[in-house]
Amino acid sequence: MQTWFCDLSPNSSKSFFGVMGRRPVVFSSQRSGMSVSAVSQSLILLLSASAVIAGFSPEEGDQVNRFQQYLRIRTAHPNPDYAGAVSFLSVQAVSIGLQTLTLEFSPGKPLLLLSWHGSDPSLSSILLNSHLDSVPAEPSRWIHPPFSAYRDADGRIFARGAQDDKCIAIQYLEALRNLKARRFSPLRSIHLSFVPDEEIGGADGNEKFVASGHFRDLKVGFVLDEGQASLTEEFRVFYADRLPWSLIVNAAGAPGHGSKMYDGSAMENLMECMEAVARFRDSQFDLVKAGVRAGSEVISLNPVYMRAGTSTSKGFVMNMQPSEAEVGFDLRLPPAEDLDVLRKRIEEEWAPTSRNMTHQLIQKGPNRDIAGLPLVTPTNASNPWWTVFEQAISASGGKLRKPEILSSTTDARFMRQMGIPTLGFSPMTDTPILLHDDNEFLKDTTFLNGIKVYENVISSLSSFRTAT
Ligand SMILES: [Zn+2]
User: Which residues make up the binding site for Zn(2+) 2 (predicted)?
Assistant: First the structure.
């Protein structure tokens, strides 16, 4: 693993490179985006950037402009420009006066860590996390190119990552910039992590980060990570992710002529599996349809592929029953689900060996935390961080919806795995949910309001004295 350091005091009159010259800097222009020339060029760009937007103050115009600049960096898989993103964010951090450290747990996959040290180092810190990468976009399906960050007459900024999750990255930074300008002084240290590979599972990103000594040294007491847009005026907040599993069932059976009726063919065995799964799926989906549970509070189970038949260059052989058949399911579980009950159900009902079936259960990521508990952050008085967070949202004039389980999966699970309370929160109200979708956008006013929300949230959390 390689590291790069850069420390700049907030009101330093020394040049960026002058200060860096005093430090044990290990820079590599080949392996990281933190090359001196890249930072220098970006710094010049940053200092010369000034955006005038009608209806906004010069500061707000600059904030929108910096958001657009970050959105224009092509961070989509399969070849995310991590070097460009880290370079841009590092320049922002330096201009704010944050300490920067670039870690690299896997070659070519930098993780940027920024710090603002609190006045009481005996207290645990807060961590604000976001991911550097984005999912791909199909330009032909977009009304504006996905990396143009085009801002239309209504203030909608179109870009891949506008909601997921480059908005929070810049909002965190701009909130800290404003707090610094107000001469705010945090009691607890505030750390920001910008991690690679969240969109492809986080194995080379946050999973390695939370297991590292660097993470341990931060003494993190509470984490904010990404959430999702809200269609209403209420903010959404997520206290858990569902567990992402995959199930592959393979059925075997005697092959035979297509015309012959007999018991125990591979296809018949596989159909038994499909029928059992369909009954269970209905029982879960009925709870959602009846309004008894939210979609993220049930086990979802969807077939994603089937493979069977005897194929030739002209298609499938139609008069032969095959000896093997396979089906794959995407399986998502609420975090507190009894996992042994489900495993038993798979073994006894869905894929019993007595019917010539075998199965493979792929459990991606952790199921329980280091104490063996579900990966759930309490959202009641038992969690003092929750109370502070909730009050800060109210103080900024916002309202919170009932806390939810996220249907999909984020890097928050790795922090929860360490037993650290972690909330998923992206301040986007009255906004269509467009993550991973075509024409993803965020309105400029929504983006700017989010900065104010974070100012309240970050100042409250970092001033909070009594939690450990
Ligand atoms: Zn995301």
Answer: 164, 199, 436
324 tagged catalytic: no
349 is an annotated ligand-binding site residue: no
Please pick, among 60, 62, 174, 198, the residue that the annotation labels catalytic.
198
Distance 354 CA to ligand 1 centre (A): 42
Residues 6+ apart with CB under 8 A from 317: 309, 310, 311
Residue 371 half-sphere exposure, CB side, CA atoms within 13 Å? 8
Of the candidates 284, 285, 241, which has an alpha carbon nearest to the alpha carbon of residue 408? 241
**Cα 130 to ligand 1 centre (Å):** 8
Per annotation, catalytic residue among 104, 133, 297, 404: 133
Global pTM reads: 0.85
Structural domain contains residue 401: yes
Last residue of a domain, one of 301, 328, 363: 363
Q: Say if residue 348 carries a ligand binding annotation.
A: no
| 131 annotated as ligand-binding | yes
In the residue annotation, 198 being an active-site residue is answered as yes
| Confidence at residue 233, expressed as pLDDT on a 0 to 100 scale | 97
Same domain, 159 and 184: yes
Statement to judge: residues 198 and 71 lie in one domain: yes
- Could you give the count of Cα atoms lying within 13 Å of 282 in the half-sphere of its Cβ? 6
Mean pLDDT for 50-68 is 90
pLDDT above 60 for 14: no
Residues 233 and 264 both lie in one domain: no
Q: 213 is in which domain, residue-wise? A: 2-237+379-463
